[in-house]
Amino acid sequence: GLEPKRPAEGLEPKRPAEGLKPTRPAESLERNRSAETLEWKRSARLGSDRGHQCFMKRAAYNSKVSLCVRSYADLISGSVKATGNWHECDVIFSIWNALPAQGEGGSGSDVFFDIGANIGICSIEMASRTSAAQVFAFEPSPRNQFYLTGTFLANPPLLGRLRLFPVGLGERPANLPIYADPTNWGHSVVGSPLGTDPQVVGVVQVRRLDDLVRPPYPQVRLAKIDVEGFESRVLRGGRRLFSSGAVRAVFIELSPFLRGQGSSRHELISLLLEFGFRFHDFSRASAAISPIATWRLKLLACPGSNDRFDNLLAIFSGSPQPPLSRC
């Protein structure tokens, strides 16, 4: 019952009227040949990891959920093997619960976007712990796809809630090399080699989010974006979606990797302001969401050191703002 009933017609949809409200997530993807070809069919496992197999671990939040992670040293897999979860996924879960439902159908009609899904630890947690109708995951690395699909195949009750697109998201369609850090194989970077000893692990497809997700839009309560410096390109390639109001909130990383992709913290923040988002602090202890003052936002956009890592929560307000003044 997750696939749309209408067959693909291969035609461009008419442009929706302004203010068109989101509709059911199962109708959200343009059922053209391109999107249908790209989406994982939820049968065979994708990708491979040089002959390595899964290390299976029970999730800390639900002993019935099995997690397929790397058997060798890796940042995220190491944490999951030790604790049964990845700490950032718990933060994302808390933010989801603190946000009001996006759709008229209540929380059961909302969806979660995991852009830069890595091995799928946050995707499976959100599918398991929330009432999200669907989890849309985007991950280009075949090595990460191997574990992501392995996890969902190991959890049949949750499999139908995943919409996986094994591609990278960017500003324009392209086929680009993907690099990995030998000291942390889960750290994958598209297009530009970063780190001291990056290794090419393949060539991946990059697509625009606006070409994959078209009106009528899903009701996206929260989109997590963590793509190792590609964040600004993801936003530019999803300009229509993010400006539409269909995405309630974005949880996004500011990292030193932005520079390696020809972007900056200032550009990323200014794009979200242009799309109509406002930035907020989130207190996990109290589940409180509060606006960030402009002067603090300027400090985040123009830090004394660009080597910092920060996560920002942006919530759609519907009122586009001019970019921040230059650093």
TrEMBL record:
<dbReference type="InterPro" id="IPR029063">
    <property type="entry name" value="SAM-dependent_MTases_sf"/>
</dbReference>
<protein>
    <recommendedName>
        <fullName>Methyltransferase FkbM domain-containing protein</fullName>
    </recommendedName>
</protein>
<dbReference type="InterPro" id="IPR052514">
    <property type="entry name" value="SAM-dependent_MTase"/>
</dbReference>
<dbReference type="InterPro" id="IPR006342">
    <property type="entry name" value="FkbM_mtfrase"/>
</dbReference>
<dbReference type="Pfam" id="PF05050">
    <property type="entry name" value="Methyltransf_21"/>
</dbReference>
<feature type="compositionally biased region" description="Basic and acidic residues">
    <location>
        <begin position="1"/>
        <end position="18"/>
    </location>
</feature>
<feature type="domain" description="Methyltransferase FkbM">
    <location>
        <begin position="114"/>
        <end position="279"/>
    </location>
</feature>
<feature type="region of interest" description="Disordered">
    <location>
        <begin position="1"/>
        <end position="34"/>
    </location>
</feature>
